[in-house]
Amino acid sequence: MSPQFTRSNIDSGLQFLEKVEQGVESVAAIVPVSFAMKHPQYLFAENIQDFKNNTTRFLLVKSRGELQDYDFTREKTALFVEFQEDRPGLLYKMLSVFNLFGINLCRLESRPSKTTPWMYVFYVDFYNIPESQACLDVLKTSMFNYHILGSYDVYSPEN
Question: Are residues 80 and 139 in the same domain?
Fold first, then answer.
């Protein structure tokens, strides 16, 4: 019989550490290796991933005042897209803009809008090409607002 537990989400490894230091004994967390190295007394198991190449993406977030120009020479760009209105075919139209420029999407997720009931925003990751900025310019004039989250290179264990 497997152990019984209750799953709950916490905001950070630091919150987990605070619970442990408060004497809560029956807690566990999946944390980055750097956390485990700083607190080896709490390490229970290593390499618990489902498959060998499992990865987690960590993002560095800055305030709007600290934003820089986006580097489309990096391998990928992440953004979220909002529709200016809701009508049939808008997702198709958005995808058509990326297709027009030959941009390969590697992630597309919908999320409920936090500001408008029954509207959705789309989280998009795509592989950069020299025409990435031109594609986004067309997207902006085609009934879409977008917010670039950043551009990044892809880590692979072989590198």
Answer: yes
Give the tens place of pLDDT for each residue, 23-33: 776 777 777 77
CB 111 within 8 A of CB 120: yes
Compute the distance between CA of residue 119 and CA of residue 155 in angstroms, rounded to an integer: 34
Per-residue pLDDT reduced to its tens digit, 55-87: 666 666 666 665 556 677 889 999 989 988 888
Residue 59 in domain: no
By 3-state DSSP, what share of the chain in percent is helix, strand and coil, each rounded to 5? 25, 20, 55
Q: For residue 55, is it within any domain? A: no
CA 79 to chain centre: 9
